[in-house]
Sequence to fold (67 residues):
Amino acid sequence: MTVNDVVQFNERHKWRGSLGIISEDKGFDHPRRYLIGVPIPDSGIAYIYDDGSSIEHIGKAVLVEEE
Fold:
């Protein structure tokens, strides 16, 4: 998985079922850490870290936030 990939949290995570976009890949060492932005209507974006074990790859985001 890479930056701007759309992911869904699986049943191992408290945010299960939520969709998010990988904002950063925080390194290639073990454990790997992805920073995932989850849009929340009328509240902004929640940023969540995950090591990749609780997310499933959905596809590539077409529209992403500015850096």
About this structure: Strands lie at 5-9, 19-25, 34-40, 44-50, 55-60. The CA atoms of residues 4 and 44 lie 17 Å apart. The radius of gyration is 11 Å. The chain has no helices and five strands.
